[in-house]
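ok here's the first one, seq then struct tokens
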Amino acid sequence: MLPLLQRYFAQQALIEDLEQTRSSPVKLLAVSKTRPASDVAVLYCAGQRDFGENYLQDALKKQHVLAHLDISWHFIGPIQSNKTRDIARYFSWVHSVDRLKIATRLNQQRPAYLPPLNICLQVNVDEEETKSGFYLDELLDVIEPILSLENVRLRGLMAIPKVDKPIAEQHASFRKMAQAKKEIEQTFDISLDTLSMGMSGDLQVAVAEGATMVRVGTAIFGERLKNTV
């Protein structure tokens, strides 16, 4: 467990250093997909409260094992329509809302006894054919319908830019996300507090361009495992 905690505290220290260059805080989302519940429990004891999961069934098993802990679970993976009921019921955040249909289903299926589900709209910022998400020029058309939904709360935008791009191009992609957030806020007179962007490999660039939440998996947990829970 010691290497896990060492990596975790190293990422926390890195984020704290990066925060010195800006006026707003950055939240660390520990991406625990494929990792056992025991790893999540270790980080929880170290103070981590927000955990990201990509695979629904894997996440539900971990949630059952760790139900006694006050964890904020974030769903960050692709969403199929037949998965929305469980996502709406068992998560506090959804970062990967890539269609209006998905937002509508999450709204309809969010239990009334729970607070509104926090959502981010996934943006295909580099317009990759193999990735889901709204193109930047589609965003303004979906904001008003989403704002009308009572059981979801639009918190911001999420993106996964192309990997292995030159640093200058990484900056440009993340800068587009910050600009899109600002345009939405000005157009609809709202305040969005979340730019979910930046992972293990591009965290520093993302924070420099305004990320408020970074999704870190490998740099904390090590290489992905096949068996969990």
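and now the second one, same deal
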Amino acid sequence: MEVPEFDPLDGGTQAEALFLFEKPGPMTAAEGRGSRVGSGFISRDNDDPTAEAIFRFMVQAGIPRRRTLIWNTIPWWNGTRKIEREELQAGIRETFTLIGLLPRLKAIVLVGRRAEAVRPNLDASGLPVFVSAHPSPLVRASLPAVWDRIPEQWAQVHPHLTHEQAFR
């Protein structure tokens, strides 16, 4: 299993908003898959349609990159998008380890149905939790109205971040 790195252009431990996706895709794997080699990072700059949508939706939502951290409920890539129950449980434990490393965290956005599995465990955190659809090509093709609402859903974090006037 390969765990990609955090994107150094994002907020790191100073992030105020955690965007928790489902599971890394193949373009995060530094070892590459076939003729395509990934970046080794969970990044909105990766060479895939989901990363491109994340980049665009963050801009549309007006959320500065340095205030965010993008991660996954299951942080490792194991060559498949399939998620087993045990893998999900291990990922949930890792999510709480990550949250403990983010002292400025003010809000969490769970991106995608599988990421929403963490929600019941987040109640004790006291942090506001938001949900959105996943910006994957599958959602775009099958649920265009849901796809179009993603930037609006992500923008819900604004009132929970410091210096909100800087976002307008």
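notes on #2: The first strand starts at residue 5 and ends at 6. The chain has six helices and six strands.
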